[in-house]
């Protein structure tokens, strides 16, 4: 029955399912790995700034990978870049599974650098491939496919956070990592067999000097994306998990479970963004409307914490509201870049855009540890609000241009 159903699917749908399966598997282990590293090194007594530094190379190499990865995808094919990403993640996870005495900050940063390269090769390949599988001028279908891929990925990332907390408790740090390496190896071997050859390969091999976008439209969208994701990570990556563990006294299960639940709900909203934004004007106008609301939310959260009014309620309720609005913004952005990107060598435009995304994550991650350690969560939230004002200004420029 299942085989008969699969046989009737179009080649495009089959490839979409393979790409989505790869992306899901990778994302599950990536979320678990992040939570494992944050909780394990917090447990060892590392400061928030030291924990943030463990992700520094992860984010720096994400910037480089998106730029070069888009170029490589256009030259080699997206199937190859996706499979390279899966293999590098297996290597990175295995490196961290060695004797814990070897896990110096420098060593972990190198392993995280490989993981950052792997993550962005995988994401760039998956997002770019959708452009090639959906017929031209079918924007609503493209929006739905992008939203489904992005939303399901983030829901699974949330499951990964929860999985990281459980695995750390049940199997320990090393046992959890070997378990994830085995999962990734199965996915990688399956992908080598099933993923179509030369997907997304540019007709004429792109030159190295074509890496940077010459489109003002794409540059404005990329700038808005940079500040959008920096605004989230400046309080979400390091500051929030450490705040929950130290201020609220939550254990690994509670921190992992709470972060997981938030990201799962965030992913569900992302996947349903096309329904939420239906009949609200052009996609550019929608992007402006939704981002303009965001700066108010972290500012109100900071005010609530500053006056010490029911901090648990403020954090939980504020996170839910912020996550829902942010998820719609993220889905709209992910759709717009795939829509704007040139079909021939789509990975170059998508890679440039996600380079800006990675720069935002890098900025947010560094500030998350630095600002939290010296000034607390309230300061992280205020910086988040300021960044969202900048994201709104760039989105305004984009909507006016279109």
TrEMBL record:
<feature type="transmembrane region" description="Helical">
    <location>
        <begin position="381"/>
        <end position="399"/>
    </location>
</feature>
<keyword id="KW-0812">Transmembrane</keyword>
<dbReference type="GO" id="GO:0022857">
    <property type="term" value="F:transmembrane transporter activity"/>
</dbReference>
<dbReference type="InterPro" id="IPR036259">
    <property type="entry name" value="MFS_trans_sf"/>
</dbReference>
<feature type="transmembrane region" description="Helical">
    <location>
        <begin position="252"/>
        <end position="269"/>
    </location>
</feature>
<feature type="transmembrane region" description="Helical">
    <location>
        <begin position="313"/>
        <end position="338"/>
    </location>
</feature>
<feature type="transmembrane region" description="Helical">
    <location>
        <begin position="21"/>
        <end position="42"/>
    </location>
</feature>
<keyword id="KW-0472">Membrane</keyword>
<feature type="transmembrane region" description="Helical">
    <location>
        <begin position="226"/>
        <end position="246"/>
    </location>
</feature>
<feature type="transmembrane region" description="Helical">
    <location>
        <begin position="81"/>
        <end position="98"/>
    </location>
</feature>
<keyword id="KW-1133">Transmembrane helix</keyword>
<protein>
    <submittedName>
        <fullName>MFS transporter permease</fullName>
    </submittedName>
</protein>
<dbReference type="InterPro" id="IPR047769">
    <property type="entry name" value="MFS_ArsJ"/>
</dbReference>
<feature type="transmembrane region" description="Helical">
    <location>
        <begin position="290"/>
        <end position="307"/>
    </location>
</feature>
<feature type="transmembrane region" description="Helical">
    <location>
        <begin position="48"/>
        <end position="69"/>
    </location>
</feature>
<feature type="transmembrane region" description="Helical">
    <location>
        <begin position="176"/>
        <end position="195"/>
    </location>
</feature>
<dbReference type="Pfam" id="PF07690">
    <property type="entry name" value="MFS_1"/>
</dbReference>
<feature type="transmembrane region" description="Helical">
    <location>
        <begin position="350"/>
        <end position="375"/>
    </location>
</feature>
<dbReference type="InterPro" id="IPR011701">
    <property type="entry name" value="MFS"/>
</dbReference>
